[in-house]
Amino acid sequence: FLEVILATNLVLFIPLLLLRIATRLYATVQKQITHNFYIFQLLNLFLGDTAFPRQIADHVIKNAMRGDVTSVINVMNQYCHALKSVGMNVGDAKGAILDKCFLEASPQNVLELGCYCGYSALRMGRLLKEGAKIYTVEGNPDFADVAQEIITFAGMEEKIQIVRGFSEKVLPTIAAKYGVRTFDFVFIDHAKDLYERDLKMLEDLGLMRNGTTILADNVIYPGAPKYLEYVRNNTKYDCTTYPTKLQFRENIDDALERSVYLV
Ligand SMILES: C[S@@+](CC[C@H](N)C(=O)[O-])C[C@H]1O[C@@H](n2cnc3c(N)ncnc32)[C@H](O)[C@@H]1O
Ligand SMILES: [Mg+2]
């Protein structure tokens, strides 16, 4: 009898342990290589990274009101909270900081790096003034598909343009492609180790004007130390930190960093 119990436990325990190791490994590796399209896709293939965004989309379509952006945002929040989500949406608490900074900037042209399922784009989209537009960059085509589905369901497809591709590839051509001169508000929320590189890219490409607001998420967790060092010790940026907690994980400290570009 004891042998049966032991064998059953082992049968359950070993796959769970392997799953845990794989998840940890994935999180570590993903941080390093999110900008490598092929490795990213390979990991997705084996570890099913798109399963969660797909579930969010299905849940939204089933439970939210078509064409009602606030209802879509609320359903996404409820779902992620209920699951103590591993989802990467900025969430409602940090979302309130995003709303505040966004409204203060009152932007015409908005750039987002890292769309995921479109949650933060929808949050900004519902505050967008008449005629203004959001361009949200997403490197993972499966995430971009899910985001497009949710954005269209919310009726925001005219206001939110998903820009498919990795930032390093799409930024050099984004202005010409969409007829934009500079962005007034930039929300940076993609791979944390690319924040500094991509901000410098925006500078070099002349995609920001005097007064452009750059808001960076997750500067404490998972953390973007090189980015913080760059903007905080730089006369070209006027910085404010908004300490907060990680989305859906109230025991983990995080912060958003607002930097106003001064040229
Ligand atoms: C934290 S999630 C974005 C969450 C989203 N802003 C929200 O709050 O709803 C980061 C996203 O950035 C994407 N990503 C990572 N590196 C990227 C890059 N170099 N260019 C474009 N997208 C990238 C990932 O595929 C992922 O979907
Ligand atoms: Mg984030």
TrEMBL record:
Assigned EC number: 2.1.1.6
Record's keyword annotation contains Ligase: no
Tagged with keyword Methyltransferase: yes
CDD domains reported for this sequence: AdoMet_MTases
Organism the protein comes from: Ciona intestinalis (Transparent sea squirt)
PROSITE patterns: SAM_OMT_I
One GO BP: methylation
Broad EC category: transferase
Superkingdom per UniProt: Eukaryota
Name assigned to this protein: catechol O-methyltransferase
GO molecular function: catechol O-methyltransferase activity
SUPFAM superfamilies: S-adenosyl-L-methionine-dependent methyltransferases
This protein's UniProt keywords: Catecholamine metabolism, Methyltransferase, Neurotransmitter degradation, S-adenosyl-L-methionine, Transferase
Protein family (similarity comment): Belongs to the class I-like SAM-binding methyltransferase superfamily. Cation-dependent O-methyltransferase family.
A Pfam family that the UniProt record links to this protein: Methyltransf_3
